[in-house]
Design goal:
Blueprint lengths: L7 E2 L2 H4 L13 H12 L7 H11 L3 E2 L2 H11 L2 H18 L16 H4 L12 H20 L3 H10 L8 H16 L6 H13 L3 H8 L9 H7 L2
Helix pairs in contact: 3-7, 5-7, 8-9, 9-10
């Protein structure tokens, strides 16, 4: 018999600061919903950020137990992907709390790694304040890990492989590159490196006739992107 997820829904009492209640809404409907989410997700290695954002949106209105997360990870990801995500979550947590990486932690208010990112069910009680805080931190690290666990060599290759189609407009081509760089490389769209790479990709992966026309100007790399787009209209 399949395990039924124990989703802890936020009741009105929780929102208004009332006393904690027993978990509500433990139904087999959640199993069906997980399966529904799985069908909507892109391949993980192709779009890790998109997968993470979809899961984050799905989890927005509820608190999920450790068992829920374990079940969700087993449904949505292969065993190697799941291990990659959990290892990344532990790495992210250690980066943020290096002093807590050891078995002794860093004091009574800083949980150890095994307490924060447990590998076996920690029996957190969502009706208890400390357990709920641990659980929510655990969810945050898992979402961050899902978005960033795929090795950059995989994602960079995806971003660099796209090329302009013959009848694709320059504006559409530019937007497609922009989306690929954000999705596969996770680059900051406001950073200078993003604009530089965007310009290089726009020209070097353009349709051959367009690329040759732009590259006739030996100073094209020093021209603003907006000017290059206008020249290819």
């Amino acid at each position: 018999m399949d395990w039924v997820p124990e989703t802890v829904h936020k009741t009105d009492e929780w929102r208004t600061g009332g006393s904690m209640k027993s978990p509500q809404g433990r139904t087999t409907e959640n199993l069906t919903r997980y399966k529904g989410v799985e069908k909507k997700l892109p391949p993980y290695l192709d779009d890790a950020i998109g997968v993470g954002e979809n899961i984050e949106e799905y989890l927005r209105n509820a608190d999920y137990t450790w068992k829920d997360w374990d079940f969700l990870l087993r449904i949505l990801f292969g065993s190697s992907e799941k291990q990659m995500i959990l290892q990344k979550a532990r790495q992210l947590r250690e980066d943020g709390h290096p002093q807590a990486a050891g078995a002794g932690g860093a004091g009574p208010n800083v949980p150890t790694m095994d307490d924060a990112i447990p590998q076996v069910d920690p029996q957190w009680n969502p009706n208890e304040e400390t357990s709920l805080a641990y659980l929510r931190d655990y969810c945050v690290y898992l979402i961050r890990a899902i978005k960033s666990a795929v090795p950059r060599t995989n994602t960079i290759a995806k971003a660099m492989s796209i090329e302009q189609e013959k009848h694709e407009s320059p504006s559409h081509w530019l937007e497609r590159i922009r989306e690929a760089l954000q999705k596969h490389e996770g680059m900051d769209p406001e950073g200078p490196a993003f604009d530089t790479l965007l310009k290089v990709q726009f020209v070097t992966k353009a349709w051959p006739d367009i690329r040759k026309g732009v590259q006739k100007d030996e100073e094209w790399q020093n021209k603003p992107l907006e000017e290059l787009v206008r020249k290819t209209q």
